[in-house]
Amino acid sequence: REIQTLVSELRPRLAAPLGAEGLPAALRRLADERRARDELDVTLEMRGERTLAESVTAGLYGIAQEALANVARHAGTQQAVLRLSLVEGASFLEVEDGGRGFDPQAAGDQQGHLGLAGMAERARELGWTLSVESRPGSGTRVRVEESPPGGAR
């Protein structure tokens, strides 16, 4: 079942290209899909309106998809919050859960954590910055932020 889910997540969405649909609508659909597939209750918090390049929309969607899949598989909770801010100069995407958490440093040193590495690589390709905050017993927050012009932070 997990392999079928992974393959379906990789398959391009032919019915509604992400660029035409827009990121907020795509994330609403993703939340509904996770609710139906995994009984994961995803609360959406969105602010601001901005049109993003199709590549950025697709990249952010993929990061949200992977982060929510990780919540469903590993967090030991049925609730997550997905935040999207499309405010110029302060845009970010964030997925947070109150689950079991983990040690990000130890996870980065281990084989088999391709989801985190994939999200980080995708963020780099977009010119955005990924951060993961987690501690055992304290949940996890995955955040990807738009890098300011010139790359200074």
Would you kindly provide a written description of the structure presented here, covering whatever features stand out?
- 46% of the residues lie in helices and 22% in strands.
- It has helices spanning 2-10, 18-21, 23-38, 54-75, 104-109, 114-126; strands at residues 41-47, 79-85, 92-97, 128-134, 140-146.
- The chain has a 5-stranded mixed beta sheet, with helices on one face.
- It is globular.
- The N and C termini lie far apart (41 Å).
- 25% of the residues are buried.
- The model is unreliable at 12-16 (pLDDT under 50).
Fold blueprint:
Blueprint lengths: L1 H9 L7 H4 L1 H16 L2 E7 L6 H22 L3 E7 L6 E6 L6 H6 L4 H13 L1 E7 L5 E7 L7
Parallel strand pairs: 1-2
Antiparallel strand pairs: 2-3, 3-5, 4-5
Helix pairs in contact: 3-4, 4-6
Task: List key phrases describing it.
153 residues; alpha+beta; 5-stranded mixed β-sheet; 6 helices; 46% helix
Strands in their spatial order, largest beta sheet:
1-2-3-5-4
Counted beta strands: 5
Low-pLDDT stretches are 12-16
Structural class by helix and strand composition: alpha+beta
3D shape: globular
Query: What is the strand content?
Result: 15-25%
